[in-house]
Amino acid sequence: MSIHEYGWSDYWNGFWNQWKQSNEERAGDTQLRPARLIADYGQKVKLITMDGERWGAASGKLRHTMVDPAEMPAVGDWVVITTSDEVSDAVIHAVLPRKSQISRQAAGFETKEQLIATNVDTLFLVNALNHDFNMRRLERYLIMAWNSGVNPVVVLSKSDLCDDVQQRVAEAEGVAPGVPVIVISALQNEGREQLEAFLQPGATVALTGSSGSGKSTIVNWLSGADVQLTQDVREEDSRGRHTTTHRQLFPIAKQAVLLDTPGMRELNLWDDSTGVAHTFADIIEIAQQCRFADCKHKGEAGCAVEEAIQRGELSESRVNNYRKMQRELEYQARKEADRRRKDSRSSTTSGRRDQRSGWRRDVEW
Description:
This protein is an alpha/beta fold.
């Protein structure tokens, strides 16, 4: 295996040449070469190079110059590396420009971006057709997908466990207008051809969804081999355990690259540029007919959204989730703004102290 089986193309070769041109002082280093980060194990990562797989880690300079943790190398990234010999770990010196970036708000109270994957073309939003089927969660995944610059595809897995598949399809199409909805059953080998239509040569396809939705099973099914561990879910509530513990790329012979991710029971949204507008386009379009431009859709006279709910054109639960998403993103934006102000004040205070004491902070690495 080499980087060609993991999506290397003329597109990425162009970025590689651009990087060398803008780093002329280093471009002459014959040890510099491109690689892709294919798995993250914490302190070390696994890379695929022209010569095959090898372990690697970010250089000290890269760790210190990347102020934002989200800029650090992540699974899916194309990176610039050097290798001192055939067995030592590779050193990552730079990250090539990203085509897309899938992020979420990290768990915990701190406002912090957590990268899920980069350079993804298509995102399979996997929802099992069992007790864990949840349209409100699907709306969150759709917002994340649209914000990330990837093409979402709704994958309804485990259709063999559902007695009313068409009803579930209608529900999914209702919250994801214009997005492909594919019904599959790996057990009965149904829906495989529809998924493979997105596995074009050189493409990177990621899978996301809650634990137990069947992501690892889909990876094995499409790969034709047991490359990922799988576990059964609890029958009483269809809850799964975290089978996948890290993010990893899997090449499919002469086709695309699959990226499996750990299951996410809670998806806290990170940023919003177009996600809400895409996901709730029907509500936003109707809201333009409200009597008041600042209508909150909570009892105001002439509210077109509430009238649409009464007529059965909109689901009340969907509108409530739309309001919830807006509040969540507004709250996060305020927290992020507060954090930036505090960081700015701290940096200013620290700089003044340095000037008084004569310290030099511009250390050469």
